[in-house]
Amino acid sequence: MAAAAPADLAEFHAELRAVARALLSASPPSWDRITEVGWTGLEVEEALGGADATFAETAVVLQEMGRAAASVPYLAVAGLGVGALALLEPGPDRDDLLRATATGDALTVVALDAETTDGTPFRLDAEFRLHGTAAFVLDASRADRLLVPALDPTATPVIATVAAAPARSRPPAPDQGESPAADADTRPDSSRPLASTRSGSREAPDGASGWIGPRVPMSARNGSREAVEGAPETDTPRVSARGGSWEADCRCLSASAQGGSSVVAEVDSRAGSVAIADRAVLDATRTFGSVVADGVAVPADAVWRFRSDPGVALRRLHDRAAVAVACDSLGLSEAMLDATVAYAGTREQFGRRIGSFQAVKHACADMLVQARVARELVAAAAQAVAVGDPDAGTAAAMAKSFACAAAVEVAGKAMQLHGGMGYTWESGVHLHLKRASLNRSLFGAPARHRARIAARYRDGAP
Amino acid sequence: MTAADLDAFRAHVRDWCRANVPADWRRAQTGAPDEEFVRFQKEWFQRLREAGFAVPHWPASWGGGMPVPEQAILYRELAAHDAPRLVLAFVAVHHAAATLLAAGTGEQRARYLPAILDGEIWAQGFSEPDAGSDLAALRTTARREGDVYVVNGQKCWASGAAHADWCLLLARTDPAAPKRHGISYLLMDLRSPGVGIRPTRQATGESHFCEIFLDDVAVPAANLVGAENAGWRVAQETLGAERGMTMLELAERLGGGFRRLVDRCSRPGPGGTRPLDDPLIADRLAELETELTGLRALCTALVGDAHPGPADASIVKLYYSELLQRITGFGTETLGLAAHTDLRKPASSGWESGAWALDFVASWEWTIPGGASEIQRTIIGERALGLPREPAAF
């Protein structure tokens, strides 16, 4: 794959894109089907059940996810989970998890704070107790394995692995429709706690092994108030992680370990917990959880190290996140452009198809130009991430800031040009507009990324 | 071509630039008389030609054949070393050559392409006072008499015509045919009897655009390009070149202009502070660099694509021209009143000469000619997106 000629690669991408588009046009797209066809394992080596491809191929699927506004945890799992695992030192535990993530047996999520562009809010103290809060972690509440980027006692970035739920009780893909054409009534009502829409398997019985976190509402717990900051106080606390001892969880981890790499630390089951709480957002195609670690002890063999410079590795993980969202926004923009062109080519007013009016035609032309520029920037960034280009950070910042801002403009213009119909719930344009608007804020708003670009000017760039 | 090959090529171009770009050309070209401008342009063209850098985009058999990645490097290095631009030969090496290569006869190519390399200058006689965006409304006539066409009419916005030897000419050969079907494409010697040229003073104060008056000018029938009355289609090749191949160089030149802007923003500006220390200015610069990076990628893709989309060249022309306007506009806004004190820009420079306020005014030279931005948007909407055409106005 890596040695494929550009023409072959382009053909492969086109094929992958076509298959992805067809599969995701099903409403709702099935997460099981997505893992079955191997998209979560695109970048995983063949020996571990993957396709031995690169991020450039994952990027193709990510674009289609955005096009379909798919409500599946693909970005979290294939974009970040697999990406994080690939950056870690290989070992039996890591390899097992990578294999399970590739095949869909594990839903691995990285507790990367979705509002940041670098670093991590988590740290391990001298006793390897995990502290920190990430207010928004993409798909945290769907995870059965959480990879928590943390600074170890020497301030070196590591990954603390935490089992969020055993793989067998992983929640199925949410059953809401995805495409604008889908019946909107099947979507979760954002005024209800998302947890209540889950299937029974998620509602593990009290005390079942492998569940972590406190049962008490987060807002009632001391020190975790910030995790629900901004949520209406009258809301039912959206606690999805159920009770169960951390000790039990560590046993679960240890059981899966086959000859761990380092010394097993003492586990103090009363040391604390990692709590995940749902954070409902207006974009109903996405789920978030807050992740709060208040001193839980992490066994040494559950602390995994990066295979290369840890600071650079964490930086690359953030860049992957940014580019993954940019891919999503690009696909979303192209979907909105297509829908708008189709509508303007049929809708008649004043005795003419509205697309024949220059005001409409020129707006569509501008949408295309924005999407074309975004496509070039996203392709360059995806390639830079795929090959580990040292300048990938700049390419990622450009792709993220441009494509995600453009998608809001394009989706907004799509709503405008669809007229009153575009503003209805039924049209589904709102789904893309909300997702575009969320994407823009996800993993750093455009201005944050432009600040990274501009920081280079002090060193003489460009 | 490996990365090592490209690195070696880059090093070669850098060495060449260091040895050949005249150190003081900006000063010498500022306010220089026309004759000095023409002399300098022709000399610089020959120097580039000797290095194989004058017409890299032409086919190898005519003296070009440089791979697109090398062309991108060449133009980036010429911009980085602030080399003079080929202002005077622009229409010859792009518009004339593209037209001849696409639609000219073997004899025409053999007559005109080598002559361009030897220094013949071309102008473009398309627009007329009453045929601007609606180019097909042109009224200049060419009446066949024996083995010549007798041409009468008036052309305008012919860039560089005062110093040109030849003119790409659109004229109506069948007044009865529908607008686009009665037009022919001719190659006209500007020294022919009956040709009058008058420079038009532009918004910048310069006068490189010209009016051309044609009074019973005899053009040999052998100078017809394509079939009689099929000139409209041939003209699309000329316009396609303007919107396509030229952009690779212009995008890199704009990149050079952007570097100059960042450099200026890194030094104390109005009020003694560095503009770059203002986060709002840093943010705008980063946004412009992002757009510039997108433009470069679009240009490389367009030039390297054997089968570009029907409006790809329009997308690039539209984006380039409006980004040029945004960058020069931002420079003018940010660099204070000092940006308004350059009353003349150096001849032989591009549309990002560093005389910011003048460059900003001159940026309309790209948003208006060659199909105004509004025309490009219509082309993009209809040809790329397939939107319904405007109902005919008559």
TrEMBL record, chain A:
Cofactor: FAD
Disordered: region residues: 163-244
Keyword Methyltransferase set for record: no
Keywords, ordered alphabetically: FAD, Flavoprotein, Oxidoreductase
All copies of domain Acyl-CoA dehydrogenase/oxidase C-terminal, residue ranges: 320-456
Location of the Acyl-CoA dehydrogenase/oxidase N-terminal domain: 29-91
Membership in a protein family: Belongs to the acyl-CoA dehydrogenase family.
PANTHER family linked: ACYL-COA DEHYDROGENASE, ACYL-COA DEHYDROGENASE FADE28
Protein name as it appears in the record: Acyl-CoA dehydrogenase family protein
UniProtKB/TrEMBL annotation, chain B:
Domain Acyl-CoA dehydrogenase/oxidase C-terminal: 229-384
Domain Acyl-CoA oxidase/dehydrogenase middle residues, every copy: 123-217
Cofactor: FAD
Any Pfam family hit: Acyl-CoA_dh_N
Origin superkingdom: Bacteria
Positions of the Acyl-CoA dehydrogenase/oxidase N-terminal domain: 5-120
The entry's keywords: FAD, Flavoprotein, Oxidoreductase
Xref: InterPro entries: Acyl-CoA_Oxase/DH_mid-dom (IPR006091), Acyl-CoA_Oxase/DH_mid-dom_sf (IPR046373), AcylCo_DH-like_C (IPR036250), AcylCo_DH/oxidase_C (IPR009075), AcylCoA_DH/ox_N (IPR013786), AcylCoA_DH/ox_N_sf (IPR037069), AcylCoA_DH/oxidase_NM_dom_sf (IPR009100), Mycobact_Acyl-CoA_DH (IPR052161)
PANTHER family: ACYL-COA DEHYDROGENASE (PTHR43292), ACYL-COA DEHYDROGENASE FADE29 (PTHR43292:SF3)
Family membership noted in the UniProt record: Belongs to the acyl-CoA dehydrogenase family.
Protein name, as recorded: Acyl-CoA dehydrogenase family protein
Organism this protein belongs to: Actinomadura parmotrematis
Lineage: Bacteria, Bacillati, Actinomycetota, Actinomycetes, Streptosporangiales
